[in-house]
Amino acid sequence: xxxxxxxxxxxxxxxxxxxxxxxxxxxxxxxxxxxxxxxxxxxxxxxxxxxxxxxxxxxxxxxxxxxxx
Length: 69
Hints:
Blueprint: H1 2-19, E1 21-23, H2 26-31, H3 35-47, E2 51-56, E3 59-64
Antiparallel strand pairs: 1-3, 2-3
Helix pairs in contact: 1-3
């Protein structure tokens, strides 16, 4: 199961690299993955400090953290 979560985290990273910012409910649809697996992968990336969350009204978006230059 950890391997699948890691693979999904990689898919999320690639998706966010292309799209900059995505609303959380959109991610499972974009990845064609189950909600629970997508949310576990988001947790993985958050734990590694690779993503940030932003609230806009009632929606929550996720994006990659830009590395300091």
